[in-house]
Amino acid sequence: MLILARKLEESLVIGDGIEVKIVAVQGSGEQATVRLGIVAPKDVRIWRKEVYDQVVAENRQALSVAGQMPAVEQTLAPGPVRLGGNTMGGNNGGLTGLALQPRKNPTKDANT
Amino acid sequence: MTETVLRTARFGELAYAETHIVHLVGGLLGIPGTDRVLVVQPGGTGPLCWLQSVTDPALAVVVADLAYVAPDYRPVVSAADLAELELERPEDAIVLGVAVLASDPQASTVNLRAPLIINPVLRRGRQIVMEDDRYAIRHPLVLPTAKAMAAGQG
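ok -> structure tokens follow
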């Protein structure tokens, strides 16, 4: 890991168009807080690492649970709905137009 | 329309066209192979559906349509994310939460902190992470009853 010393109001430039500035330093020791100002291109997403790590862990957990799951289709929930058909005051076509049915469920398109 | 058959671990053969693919920019965070997915909704899943990876036949995850399972939910979507997805306002998006289903339904959770924001017209979406911690990563997943679902439709 590269370690650099910076003073208040000093910056770093990372690659093309990312700048990290020390905006404020408060407190000392383990209570110290450093406020950073970050300028980055729009397509660069910035996350607090502990939150990002939790999201990644939760995604992995969801995949792992889903991988072990028996068919939930019949047991979990009430009948088919129009996905996105009830979005928050918005008006769109919903996802159901895209949704695929597994072939193991015989459907009326058998004669096409 | 040219159809491709994907031999999946969970659903057997899925026939899909290019126009079925939803592009998740950056994929599910930390999960390679999830940037192109198919929406699979077997009968009777209610507000749940599956996202099946096109690139990895073994990868499928359950997501919940948050308009149904968290009706008062208002995700905060940054201007950069709205622009990337070509959405004028978050209300025009389909908002899905990654679900972790437990054998005890009371223990199932859905991620409200990092929802998938999808433009259904472009079929382009992104998993965002909200700055503030008002919404939980493990929010209890309560599935509405059939009656409530019927009343909410239309």
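Chain A touches chain B through 54 residues (CB under 8 Å).
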